Amino acid sequence: MENKTIKIALDGPSGSGKSTLAKNLAKHYGFVYIDTGALYRTIGLFVSRKGIASDDAENIIALLPQIHIEMRLEDGGNAVYLDGVRIGEEIRTPLCSKYASDVSKIPAVRAFLLETQRSIARTNNVIMDGRDIGTVILPDAQVKIFVTASPEARAKRRFAELQQRGVETTYEDVLSEMQWRDANDSGREVAPLVPASDAIMFDNSGLDIVQTTQEAVKLINKVIGRC
Ligand code: DC
User: Fold this and answer.
1) DSSP code at position 220
2) In the Cβ-directed half-sphere of 143, how many Cα atoms lie within 13 Å?
3) Complete domains list, the chain, with CATH
4) For a tag on the chain, would you pick the N or C end, based on fewer CB atoms within 10 A?
């Protein structure tokens, strides 16, 4: 029988507010929230712990068979497990951001994570946030939203988020790291950060998270006809 799960793809650059928006939308619709960036970050963490450089594709590919990564559904969202251990804030550091962005350029890494992402959407209604959800992971998603905001607006949000988490950094460092990551994620050959041809473009530069969520709900309701 054909599977009738509802899939909402939320793509966009870092700091666009995707993850908070995705969490809010998951709560609003009672869907499962899937943070796909956490998977790339976890691979980055594993690679960095092995002392391998983030651009050493050959050795990273050789490591893949040793990586036991799992996504489990907990509290309406996804939890990532590495070798049976739940991953937490350790993947949210600037170093892990860089490693995640670099390892995500390797086609074998993307292929390695593909089924983990797709399988969850086969059996659950999902809001999935990432970079290639609408283009590669869930091309058949009923709703695709590409969230953008100016680099300055995104850096400001990301800086506030990192401060709240107790990560020591400056706004200038966050902005330059973000600009580097934008170029790295958009310029790669495989599954670059580009909107799907059928994605709704949503610029939330001037909106706070409540307004962003309200606007997104309107956009989604228009497509899936739910209120
Ligand atoms: O969403 P995030 O910032 O946690 O993602 C970290 C990195 O992982 C991001 O710079 C690019 C990569 N990524 C990806 O290539 N594809 C995804 N679907 C999600 C993240």
Assistant:
1) H
2) 26
3) 7-222 (3.40.50.300)
4) N
Rounded CA-CA distance 77/168 in Å is: 27
Rounded CA separation 28/202 (Å): 19
CA atoms within 13 A on the CB side of 87: 27
pTM above 0.85, yes or no: yes
Q: What angle do CA 111, 113, 116 make, to 5 degrees?
A: 125
What are the mean pLDDT values of the chain's consecutive 10-residue runs (227 residues total)? 81 90 94 95 97 97 96 86 95 92 96 95 94 96 95 90 88 93 88 92 92 96 76
State whether the beta carbon of 36 lies less than 6 angstroms from ligand 1: yes
181 lines ligand 1 (CB under 6 A): yes
Alpha-carbon distance of 107 to 129, in angstroms, equals: 19
Instruction: Report the candidate in 196, 179, 203 with the shortest Cα–Cα distance to residue 140.
Output: 196
Distance from the CA of 103 to the center of ligand 1, in angstroms? 10
Compute, in angstroms, the gap from residue 227 CA to the centroid of ligand 1. 31
Residue 46 neighbours by CB distance under 10 Å: 23
Q: Which atom of ligand 1 is nearest to the CA of 130?
A: 18
Residues facing 143 on adjacent strands: 8
Is 31 strand, coil or helix? coil
Residue matched to tokens 């793809």:
9
- Among residues 223, 209, 198, 201, which one has the least CA distance to residue 157? 209
| Tokens linked to 165 | 């988490």
